[in-house]
Amino acid sequence: MSRIGEALDVLTARIHARRGDDPETSYTAKLLSQGREKAAKKLGEEGVEAAIAGAKGDRAELIAESADVLYHLAVLLEANGTSLNAVAAELDRRAGVSGIEEKASRKS
Fold first, then answer.
1. Eight-state DSSP code of residue 20
2. What is d(CA 54, CA 48) in angstroms, rounded to the nearest whole number?
3. Structural domain of residue 66, as residue ranges?
4. What confidence tens digit (pLDDT) does each residue in 89-106 have?
């Protein structure tokens, strides 16, 4: 497994384990207790911050913001009862399919 795969496995396990923790002591538990809409909003905010860091060419900031994006994506997936493994399965399904073809197949 790649280093990113290992890191994401650890991250998603921690997020899942913290679902029932005290929201006063766990940021993850707090986000999950606030619902899908709050988790989605945080992912959007972090995505914009990562995009800005990338546009500025700030490598260190882009790396930090990318970590935030992955964390908040994993929280949103957990809030929706799914996981990065489901995303990986979708990526596997798309392997070998042109992006243009794949996007066109979703229009119907």
1. T
2. 10
3. 3-94
4. 999 999 988 878 777 887
